[in-house]
């Protein structure tokens, strides 16, 4: 065998490689597992993740897009990454929508001959303002499909009240939240297409209380933008009961959805190192 390999040195090299490869392959997983273990140990013994999170949420606070706190978070994160010794850390300019909530929202249900009943309401994130007080009758629906099936004359000039609750029989509450969320996300534009003056949405909560839950919504392009607000679950029940009693209540939306509750384009200005807000109201499109 030795004399055979000496005649063919190339075959000898291949044979040697084949004999040593299993040993190398066996050592590689051990090395990988040791390195992974070192990463785990470093994170568990000397990790700063929770401390960083504590600073971000406690010292800087809420960070709505375009807000001063959002910019503070960006600047702080850059410095933190540089201290960690990362190879390259840099900032890129981006255009973001900036929405500011106005004064506290107010809602009141008033029947034809009854006394006004205050109901807790909260503007949905991104909603346009009412431009002052807005008063209109209410039409209740359980879904976007039910709204689409209504004759336009039953909707025009009214608030559309989306009152489909979260399904309480789901063990996975996230599924119930997701299924009921379409009326909040798309309800305002769906109502506007039928001539409504605004949209009211039952809060996405399984609790029965007087605390309205806000959340995001989106306007469709080329559709009129109408104000949208969430009613507390108790407030939604009261309004639904009045509608079922055929008292034809109307709802007044106060200054809470005021002119100041609008979005503006905000950009980062490197020269001034500050936030520059354009004077052009941002209504139709989100920046790319």
CATH architecture of the largest domain: 3-Layer(bba) Sandwich
If you compute it from the alpha carbons, what radius of gyration comes out, rounded to the nearest whole angstrom?
30 Å
According to DSSP, the number of beta strands is 11
Overall pLDDT confidence: 80
CATH class of the largest domain: Alpha Beta
Give the distance, in angstroms, between the N- and C-terminal Cα atoms: 71 Å
Structural class: alpha/beta
Order of helices and strands: HHHHEEEEEHEHHEEHEEE
Shape: elongated
CATH topology of the largest domain, by name, is: Glucose Oxidase, domain 1
Strand content: 15-25%
Specify the biggest β-sheet. Answer: 8 strands, mixed
Textual characterization of the structure:
The protein has 288 residues and is of the alpha/beta class. It has three domains: 1-47; 56-98 and 272-288, no CATH class; 101-257, Glucose Oxidase, domain 1 (3-Layer(bba) Sandwich), CATH 3.50.30.30. Helix content is 38%, strand content 19%. The protein is built from eight helices and eleven strands. It has helices spanning 2-7, 9-46, 49-60, 68-83, 144-149, 173-180, 182-193, 233-244; strands spanning 96-99, 107-110, 117-119, 121-123, 134-141, 159-162, 198-202, 228-231, 250-253, 263-269, 274-282. The strands form two sheets. The protein has an eight-stranded mixed β-sheet with strand order 3-2-9-5-6-7-8-4. A hairpin with a 6-residue loop joins β2 and β3. The longest helix has 38 residues, at 9-46. The chain starts with a helix and ends in a 6-residue tail after the last strand. The model is unreliable at 255-288 (pLDDT under 50). Residues 263-273 have a biased composition (Basic residues). Keywords: Glycoprotein, Hydrolase, Metal-binding, Metalloprotease, Protease, Secreted, Signal, Zinc, Zymogen. Residues 1-25 form the signal peptide. It is found in: Secreted. GO terms for molecular function: metal ion binding; metallodipeptidase activity.
């Amino acid at each position: 065998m030795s004399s055979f390999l000496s005649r063919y040195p190339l075959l000898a090299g291949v044979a040697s490689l084949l004999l040593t490869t299993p040993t190398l392959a066996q050592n590689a997983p051990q090395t990988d597992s040791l390195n992974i273990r070192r990463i785990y140990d470093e994170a568990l013994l000397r990790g700063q993740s929770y401390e960083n999170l504590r600073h971000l949420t406690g010292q800087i606070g809420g960070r709505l897009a375009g807000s001063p706190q959002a910019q503070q978070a960006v600047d702080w994160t850059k410095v933190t990454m540089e201290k960690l010794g990362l190879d390259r850390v840099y900032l890129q300019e981006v255009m973001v929508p900036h929405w500011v909530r106005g004064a506290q929202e107010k809602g009141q249900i008033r029947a034809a001959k009854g006394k006004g009943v205050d109901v807790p309401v909260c503007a949905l994130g991104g909603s346009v303002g009412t431009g002052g007080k807005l008063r209109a009758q209410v039409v209740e629906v359980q879904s976007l499909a039910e709204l689409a099936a209504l004759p336009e004359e039953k909707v025009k000039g009214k608030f559309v009240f989306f009152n489909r609750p979260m399904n309480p029989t789901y063990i996975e509450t996230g599924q119930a939240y997701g299924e009921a969320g379409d009326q909040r996300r798309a309800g305002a534009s769906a109502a506007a297409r039928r001539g409504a003056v605004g949209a009211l949405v039952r809060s996405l909560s399984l609790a029965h209380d007087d605390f309205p839950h806000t959340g995001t919504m989106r306007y469709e392009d080329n559709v009129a933008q109408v104000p949208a607000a969430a009613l507390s679950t108790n407030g939604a029940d009261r309004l639904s009961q009045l509608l079922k009693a055929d008292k034809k209540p109307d709802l007044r939306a106060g200054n809470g959805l005021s002119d100041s509750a609008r979005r503006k384009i905000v950009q980062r200005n490197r020269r001034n190192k500050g936030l520059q807000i354009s004077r052009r109201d941002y209504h139709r499109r989100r920046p790319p």
